[in-house]
Amino acid sequence: MKRWIRFQDWSLRWKSFLILLSLIFIPALTISFLVYYQSNSILEKQVIERNEQNLRHIEHNLLEVMRGIEELSSYIIYSEEFRRYMAMSVDEADSDPEEVQRLQDHIRGFFTFHLNNKHYVNSAYVEGVNGTQLHLGERISGEEQKWEEIAQTLQGKILWTDPYQMERGGWVPEDYQMISLFRVINNLFDITEPIGQVRIRLDEQELFSYMTNGYMNPNDEMVLLQQDGLVLSHQDKQLVGERYPNNQVIQQVKEESGLFTYDENGEAYYAVTRKVKGRDLYLVSTVSEKYILNEFSHIRTMMQMIMIGSGVVGVIAFLGFMLTIIRPITDLTRETKRLEDGDFSAQVQVRSKDEIGQLGSRFNKAVSHIQYLIGTKYKLEIQHKESELKALQSQINPHFLYNTLDMIRWTARLEQANETGQSIEDLSRLFRISLSQGKLLIPLKDEITYVQSYLQLQKRRLGGMLTFSAYIEAGIEKNLVLKLILQPLVENSLQHGFEEIDENNVIRIRTFRSGELIVIDVIDNGKGLSMGVDAFNDSLKQQTEQHGFALKNIHERLENKFGAPYGLRAIQSEQGTHVQITIPNQIIEEDRE
After folding, report:
1. How far apart are CA 225 and CA 243, in angstroms?
2. Parallel, antiparallel or unpaired: strands 220-226 and 281-288
3. How does pLDDT run across 539-551, given as a tens digit for each residue?
4. Mean pLDDT, the chain, integer
5. Element (H, E) at 496
6. C-alpha–C-alpha distance, residues 133 and 334, integer Å
7. CA angle in degrees (0–180, nearest 5) for 435-441-443
């Protein structure tokens, strides 16, 4: 599986896009989302708080109405005129019609005042046990016997009825939904003796208007419920007196949840419930989520404009950054690659005078200067070197030298001088490998052969007082290496490593593969490095001609050819000197002069 490219290796275009995305688009989108979400939450909270506040006012108005009507019924109990009118017998009424008229006028005046000031009071009815009846307000008819019977069982306690239907006569009959107060009036001095009854009828729609006046949004729904779900008051009079159609709302009312949400016909609603203080009644205000979202539409539009604006600004910034920064850099990179490939006609188009433009101008000047150097000094120097090489080659013909040495070697063998013949053969091999037809790189096996011939000649020169060995791992013989890198090392061992040359002096050469490296060790059992291993490695870059110039030369040649990780270094050894050379484990294409 292909590995992901590291961020630092991405192209500048992708880096710029990612940075732009991180600095403009992502923050803008994040802020817009947060503002949208927070605004939505705040708006929902405001709508819910508004509904809760409206329910408090509606509750106050409802309680004001109920207490006012209940106070009217209580006034009747304590009013002497009302008690006298309801307790007056038929004989008394017949004997004193003026008193009856006076009492009726008083009662009518009392109720007329309240009917005029309380528009939600539709009518009233007062009846005495003696059969006297007085209708006040609008003349309506309907079945009320059920509530009369219940009121009688309460023996003077207040009864608030459920909504029931009454009808007004006339040319065009009209139905009303009434919520009425029924109450039996007992004798003030004997509360077990009923003297009459009173019923005060409230128009449900007028009552709803009074309760919600100024406190109800047209998009909200407000309902007055009993705990069992019966609708007492609602803006839709078709629902009044019926069970509320949504069971979720009824269940939440029973649990007195306060704030809840529910679904109806696939649409979400927020609902706030409030129990009417001191009553088994509940006010419920609902608002649809769709309405809240519509209220939030201007904020959504603003967020969309911000996002579109951020996108436009981001694209303009990205294009400007690409044209003014990235394109000149990519042009410079492309032309640098051409220069690296040897095309010295590379030129960068300079479009500005800023730092990038100045960099392009300096690149163009540098390329022009390189072209000048190649066309003048470098070519002249090459020609000069070639002339010197030709002069040297004309002085010494390698083929003549090889043939002459070969002739002397065979002559020595014919004269039975085998040692001399072997020495001449080793010397011939040295010349042949050192010249190598002008090659800089030779196979590893040839370099080992060369150093073996050199050590063989040194051993004969020293009268056999030297032991050496050379080992090369199978499979790496054809790896190319710079020629003449081992001879200076063994020569250094002979000149500086051994205090006296004797038969105990040993030089070992071993070559082997180590992962991606070819390692060449040159080890002797001499006196070792006088300056120490660390000092020796540090001094490779500081050596002068008088101290280790040959070793410095080997290290620089290896480093220049194969790169900084490769070269020469000393290894800590218990006895003698251990110098190690590392080169790449690959067959490098041969370079020529």
Report:
1. 9
2. antiparallel
3. 776 644 444 567 8
4. 79
5. none
6. 112
7. 95
